Structure formats: structure tokens, C-alpha cells
Amino acid sequence: MRQTRARAAMTRAARGGAAADSLASAFPPGPVLSGFLDAAGQVEVARVAEGFGMSKSQLAETIGLGREALYKTARAHAAKTQSRVREMLEIVGRVSTWAGGKEQAMAWYRAQPIAAFGDRTAESLVKSGEAGALRDYLDHIAMGGFA
């Protein structure tokens, strides 16, 4: 029941019109993400792994993919791989100002249980394809909503 109310509140916040437009300034996802893009707009997974001090295997585990997805160039540029890495970077970017930096935001992403999602972590949510609900939740919090 608690989770249903939280998701309903997040949906209302996401539909907030002008208030939702102000979220773009409250949570600029671009700075963290843009630092890892190549000239073609693809996320450079090697740079992401290096930027967070982890191996490609660790990064693959963090986003819920097999290590081959990041070690083979064709797979690293595949839509699913790019999407998962972008989701992780966007979420880490959204909480980095709250957490005190990207390293602390990554620690939150990997370890902090979120009560509104049954004490699942952001990492768990991204791995299971629920990044959209997590982004809505973070938008709700940014607008002054309760967790």
C-alpha cells in the first residue's frame, strides 16, 4: 500500500506541467552524462568505468549486464547497453549534488535501500528495468515531496 501511494505521488509530480519544467534546472542530468559521450553521442563505457574507479566487469555488474556487453565494441554500442549506462549516469547525476559528488552518489546508487521501492536500491531498480519509476521518484523528491 505504501509503495502504491508513493508511486501515485510520483506520477502526479511527473505530470506537474510548469513545476515539472522547473525540474530540468533542479536536476540537470547533462553534466555527468556529457562527460562520458564520444563525438557521435555514444557513451564511452571505458571512460565511465575509469571515471568511477571500476573495471568494465564491475560496471557491467552494476548495470545488470554480462561483462561481454562492455568488452566487445559492437555490444558496447548496442541500444540496451547504451540505455542502461545512460540510466545509471542520469540517476547518479541527479543525486550527486545531494550526495556530495559523483563518488558518493555512486555509493548511494549501489547500497542505499529506498523505502518507497520495498527497500530496493537504485542499482536493483535499474537492473530490473525500473529506472523510469526511480527518475519519477527523484523528481518527486526534488519538488519537495516526501520519500
Descriptive notes:
There is one protein chain. The protein is mainly alpha-helical and 147 residues long. The chain has one domain. Helix content is 67%, strand content 0%. The chain contains eleven helices and no strands. It has helices at residues 2-14, 18-26, 30-34, 45-51, 56-63, 68-71, 73-76, 79-99, 102-111, 122-127, 131-142. It is globular.
Nutshell version of this structure?
With 147 residues, this protein is mostly helical.
Descriptors for this entry?
147 residues, mainly alpha, disordered N terminus
Helix content: 55-70%
Strand fraction equals: under 5%
Uncertain regions spanning at least 5 consecutive residues: 1-29
How many domains is the backbone divided into?
A: 1
The number of helices is 11
Instruction: Describe the global form.
Output: globular
Q: What's the mean pLDDT score?
A: 81
Radius of gyration: 15 Å
Q: Please report the total strand number as a whole number.
A: 0
Structural class: mainly alpha
| Biggest sheet features | none
- Distance between termini? 14 Å
